[in-house]
TrEMBL record:
This is Cell division protein FtsQ. Residues 76-145 form the POTRA domain. One of its GO terms (biological process) is cell septum assembly. It comes from Saccharophagus degradans (strain 2-40 / ATCC 43961 / DSM 17024). It is found in: Cell inner membrane; Membrane. GO terms for cellular component: cell division site; plasma membrane.
Length: 285
């Protein structure tokens, strides 16, 4: 036994090719497996198709019912018409009559543009606004003209200086009266407003304006005083008059019949006591 070698047998090392490697061997299909998959898909499809079909059917029924309801409402005639606005010179019944004559359709087919044009054709109407109110209503808001002065016997100047013709302006008898050529109406209205402002600053009110064919201006104040301005620089002449008025004439204004402002450096005053006499007053003193 002496000198003999004992060798320990170790387990074999794993091959490098198989260490940590993943097998790529294909699994053999199990018999009958494709058929089971197809049957599962078919059953699943049945359960999906049935709810979807039900949902589609309900949606169709709801849509048809909604469409029928909308059509029923759309074919309704107007049942509620409301007319709003402040009516001072225009009768509300007049608007009702115009609208009634224009109602030739149901709620949807109603021609709002046509109704608006017919209402605005009345000279006392400045603007009109129409609005449908579901399901069978119509709201009409009327904005009336705002006259600031009469024009002759058959018209007035509105708040924007436009000349509006009417059949009769007797209802405006408390407003100032303007006379002149119609093609000068805008200029006359603008100048009138400026003159009225200047006179009001001195406690005087403008009652009437007349501009003749030669564009010569005459003003009538509320105390019947007549101011003759002539043709040129009429606003400047009125300002000069007010300077003299404050210094010399305010205390005797009830005695003044007529003031002629056509002089270059003064004015002539005609008094009620003696219509033959006049007094020249310098506008610069």
């Amino acid at each position: 036994m002496t000198g003999s070698r004992i060798t320990k047998k170790l387990p074999p090392k794993p091959s490098k090719k198989t260490r940590g490697a993943v097998s790529t061997t294909k699994r053999k299909p199990v018999a009958g497996e494709p058929g089971r998959v197809r049957r599962w898909l078919a059953n699943t499809a049945k359960w999906l198709v049935l709810p979807c079909a039900c949902i589609w059917l309900v949606a169709q029924v709801d849509w048809l019912a909604l469409r029928a309801e909308v059509q029923g409402v759309a074919n309704k005639p107007l049942a509620n018409i409301s007319i709003k606005g402040e009516f001072e010179f225009l009768a509300k019944e007049r608007i009702q009559s115009i609208v009634s004559e224009s109602l030739n359709g149901n709620f949807v087919d109603l021609n709002l543009v046509e109704i608006k044009q017919k209402v605005e054709a009345d000279p006392w109407v400045y603007d009109v606004r129409l609005q449908r109110v579901w399901p069978d209503g119509l709201v009409i808001t009327v904005i009336e003209q705002k006259p600031i002065a009469r024009w002759g016997n058959s018209g007035f100047i509105n708040q924007y200086g436009a000349l509006i013709h009417v059949d009769n302006n007797e209802s405006l008898e408390n407003l100032p009266l303007l006379f002149g050529d119609e093609h000068l109406s805008n200029e006359i209205a603008k100048t009138y407003l400026e003159m009225a402002r200047l006179l009001a600053s001195r406690g005087l009110n403008l009652k009437g304006v007349q501009v003749d064919s030669k564009r010569s201006w005459e003003l009538v104040l509320d105390n019947s005083m007549l101011l003759v301005l002539g043709q040129d620089e009429v606003t400047v002449k009125l300002q000069n008059f007010l300077l003299v008025y404050e210094k010399h004439l305010a205390g005797v204004k009830h005695k003044i019949k007529r003031v002629d402002l056509r002089y270059e450096s003064g004015l002539a005053v005609e008094w009620y006591e003696d219509t033959e006499s006049t007094k020249i007053v310098s506008a610069t003193h």
